[in-house]
Structure prediction request, 369 residues.
Amino acid sequence: MKIEKITLYHLRMELKTAFETSFGRIKTRDCILVEMIADGVTGYGECVADRDPGYSYETSGTAWHIYCDFMIPPLIGKTIDHPAQFQELVSWINGHNMAKAGVEMALWDIYGKQQGKSLMGLLGGEKLQVPVGVSVGIQDSPEALVKVVEAYLKEGYQRVKIKIKPGKDVIETSHLRKLFPDLQLQVDANSAYQLKDAHQLKPLDDLGLLLIEQPLASDDIWDHSRLQAEFKTPICLDESILNQRHARQAIEMKATKVINIKQGRVGGLSEGSAIHDLCQQHNIPVWCGGMLETGVGRAANLALASLPNFTLPGDISATERYYLEDITNEMFTLNPDSTVTVPQKPGLGITINTRALEQVTLCQQVFSE
Ligand code: OSB
Ligand code: MG
Prediction:
């Protein structure tokens, strides 16, 4: 693939409903769309970094800076044989995984189109439909939370994740559990606790949760191992796992019994699939996390989640759970069995709705020879 042209689009999209986590509340979501042309074929990638540095130090602003000042200019005119090879070119850039992942995704899309193979086929995925759940933000009251969850259950979601933070945790989760005793339920704290106050969460251990996601700080794999020793419920790491090495170390430390894989957080689909393989060897189940993606990133997540060791439902909800109008012509819908169908057309299997894209583009930048 000889890279001829790259266009970056900074997008801001209105969410259908505000999304609140322990690190903040958003009503609009930012991301960067990477449009790449190589050998005359156009591919797309989504950089999932958000506007604010709450989940990660990366933001749409830092990704834009890394792209324009370091990553993209040297790529123009370069030839890359396989998408994973791109990582060698950017390994000198410390971190900035989400920025790297956005470009790698576009390369996979082009590569798939050239080979006439879907991303699922290229990655070695097996499931044509993947089980999904919904990630529910922090609500104003336990009653409000129940209403929101009820509506999603009515839509057919069979697994629910709720966001928690200190003061909005045990009461909310217990209330929900009492009303829905058989629901596949899990919680996500987004690093809101410290080991010394995590004993507050102990009552959650008797609620039959699928897992407790990222209770402690992202750089605190060791303390997660101390917490896991006190909990029978699996601890699941999200923010802490930025690469395969972190995954291995967390497994060795017994800090995690389940891993959330997000291609953006780990620097791309190739690293995400490598973490999948490592976890499979260690009998650690994985699931696909989400970053409120557009249809572009959603297509990539579905392909990744089709790999065999993605045995827990992913945060890959239907398009209509997030946006009134997406930037892809393809809408992802929920099947009656709480699955979403994995795209089978070459590459990501999506096309861009250029009118919708134009409406949500804040600015764009073109790089070419
Ligand atoms: O921690 O999983 C998270 C969204 C933005 C940042 C972090 C997280 C999330 C979600 C949303 O939970 C999952 C989705 O895309 O539906
Ligand atoms: Mg999470």
Observations:
- The chain has two domains: 3-116+350-368, 121-341.
